[in-house]
Amino acid sequence: MGFEKFLFYVLAATLIAAAGMVVTRRNPVHAVLFLVVAFFSSAMLWMLLEAEFLAISLVLVYVGAVLVLFLFVIMMLDVDIATLKAQFIRHLPLALVVGVIMLVEIFLVVGPGNFGGESFPNPAPQGPDYNNTRELGLLLYSSYLYPFEIAAVILLVAIVAAIRLTLRHRPDTKYLDPSKQVYVRKGPDRVQLIRVPPEPRRVPPTATPTSGVEDEA
Amino acid sequence: MIELWNSLPEVIRILLKIVVILAPLMGLVAYYTLAERKIIGYMQIRIGPNRVGPRGLLQPIADAVKLMFKEIILPTRADKTLFIIAPLLTLAPALAAWAVFPFDENLVLADINAGLLYILALTSLGVYGVIIAGWASNSKYALLGALRSGAQIVAYEIAMGFALVGVLVAAGSLNLGDIVRAQSGNVFTWFWLPLLPLFLIYFISGLAETNRAPFDVAEGESEIVAGFHVEYSGMTFAVFFLGEYANMILISALSATLFLGGWLSPLPAAWVEGVFPLDSGFHWLLLKTFFFMFLFLWFRATFPRYRYDQIMRLGWKVFIPITIVWILVVGLAVVYKLPPWWSA
C-alpha cells in the first residue's frame, strides 16, 4: 500500500499543479500542453484504480485526438497577450462572484462529509485474470445498450452537422476529381497534337552601330 | 546467475530488462539507416556509402559522431524549452510502446490485458512532437510543415485504429500475446488472409504515420525541403530521425505480430516440434520484422511521392470506408464461425 499511496500523491500533486498552470499561463499553447499533462496524470490515477481501459481510452481520445485539434486551432490564432492581460483584471469582480458561487455549490454537494476512506472504501482488488475491458463491454452492450446507441446517434448527427457547415463549393477554385481523372484515355483526352504552320522568317531590323557599342560595354 | 538475478531489487530487474530491449533496438536503428542507404543504392545501381570502415560498416557511427558535435542552433525568439522537448516527444512513444510487445511465448516486459490499446494510445502521442516542433521554431515554414504533417498523421491514425479494431474482433483479445496465439496453426491461419484489406491498410497507414515515402511530405527533399524540422540541427535533428526509424521498426514488428503470427512458425506445429530453425521462436519474428523493414526501403526507392490532396483523399475517402466495411465482414465471420480461422 505504501508505494501505491506515494504514487497517488505524486500524480495528484502533478494533476493539481498542471491544472493550475492551465488557467494561469498567458500563452495559450503552453496552457494546452499543461492540459495534456493534467489529462495524462488523471489517466494514471484511473490506472491506480485498476480501470485500465478507461485510463488508456482517456489518453487515446483526449490527449491523442481532442487536444491535438485544440493545438491546431490555437496555433493558427495569433492571440494578442497584452489585451488579454488588460481584460483579465477588468473581469476580476465578475470572475470572483462566479468562482465563489461554484465553490459554495461544490461544497454543498460534495462537502467534507463525502470524502475519506470511510465513505468510499477501496474496491476489492481483482485477480490477474479479471479483464476490465471485457466486463465494461458486457455491461455497455447489454444493460446500457440504449443510452450507448443514443450517444452514438448524437455523435453521428454532430459529425454530419459539422461536415455540412464546412462543406462549401467555391466556383473559382480548380477542383480535381480523381474519379474522373482515372477515366482519362490515352488519346484525345490527355494530349492534343496540333500542327502549327511554320512562321515565315522575319528579316531582322538592321542594328545601329551605337547599340553594338553599348552591348560590348 | 539466477540467484544473483533474483537477489536484485525489482526496480533494477525491470530497468535491466528495458536496457535489454532498447540497446539492440537503438543498434538496429543505427544500422537501419546504413541498410537504407545501401539497399536504395543497389536499387539505383550505385554502391552507397563504402568509405568509413570495411564496406562502409562504420558509417552510422561516423554519422552519429558528426551529429553530436554539430552546433544546436536555437532560432531567435523560439520557445527554447519546447524546442528541445519536441524531438524527445517523438522518440519517447516509439520506445515506450515496446513495453507490451511479445518477443516469444512468455517473453514480454509487461503482459497487460489492454496491450493493443496501450500501443494505439502511445503511438497517437507521437503527433505532439511534430506539432510542438513546428510551433516552437517560431518560423512560418516550420509551422506550415507541422500543420501538414499533423493533419496527415491524425488522418491515417483513424484508418490504423480501425484496422486494429478488426484484429481485436478477429482475436477476441487486446493482449498481444493472445492475438498471436489466436493465429496459431500454419501460414494460412494467420490473420493476413482473412484480414487482407486491413493488413494492407495497416501497413500503408504505417508508412504515412512514420512520414515515409511515398507519403513523405514532411521531408520532401526534392520539392519543398523539410517541414516541421526545418529549424533543427545537430543532435536535436538526429533525435527526430531516431524517432522516425524507431517508429518504422515498431510498425514493422507490429505488422508481423498482428497479421503474420509473430513468433509462430509458418509450418504446422506438429511437423516442426523441436526442430530448431523451423520451430516457432524469436527468429521467426525477427525474420518477419526484417521483411517489413525491407518493404519500407523498397517503397521509398520505387514509388513517386503522393500529392498532398491525394494523401488526404486516400486516408479519409478510401481507407476509412474500406476498414469500416471489413470490420463488419470480420464480425459476421466470427459470429458464424467461418472455418478454418474461427471454427474452434
Question: What structural keywords apply?
Answer:
heterodimer, A: 217 residues, mainly alpha, Four Helix Bundle (Hemerythrin (Met), subunit A), elongated, B: 344 residues
Give an overview of the whole structure:
The complex is a heterodimer of chains A (217) and B (344). Chain A has 217 residues and is mainly alpha-helical. Among the domains of chain A are: 1-90, NADH-ubiquinone/plastoquinone oxidoreductase chain 6, subunit NuoJ (Four Helix Bundle (Hemerythrin (Met), subunit A)); 132-168. Chain A contains nine helices and no strands. The longest helix of chain A is centred in the N-terminal third of the chain and has 25 residues, at 52-76. Chain A is elongated, with a radius of gyration of 33 Å. The relative contact order of chain B is 0.13. Chain B has 344 residues and is mainly α. At the A-B interface, helix 2 and helix 3 of A face helix 5, helix 6, helix 7 and helix 13 of B.
Brief summary:
Chain A has 217 residues and is mainly alpha-helical. Chain A contains 9 helices and no strands.
Question: What do the pLDDT scores of chain B average to?
Answer: 87
End-to-end distance of chain A: 92 Å
Q: Largest beta sheet of chain A, briefly?
A: none
Order of secondary-structure elements of chain B:
HHHHHHHHHHHHH
User: What is the CATH architecture annotation of the domain at 1-90 in chain A?
Assistant: Up-down Bundle
User: How would you classify the helix and strand content of chain A by structural class?
Assistant: mainly alpha
> What general form of chain B does the structure show?
globular
- Separation of termini of chain B? 42 Å
- Looking at CATH, the homologous superfamily of the domain at 1-90 in chain A is NADH-ubiquinone/plastoquinone oxidoreductase chain 6, subunit NuoJ
Helix fraction of chain A by DSSP (H/I, runs of at least 4): 55-70%
CATH fold label of the domain at 1-90 in chain A:
Four Helix Bundle (Hemerythrin (Met), subunit A)
Report the count of strand segments of chain A. 0
**H/E element order of chain A:** HHHHHHHHH
Strand content of chain B: under 5%
Mean pLDDT of chain A, as a whole number? Answer: 82
- Rough outline of chain A: elongated
Return the structural class of chain B: mainly alpha
Extended strand count of chain B? 0
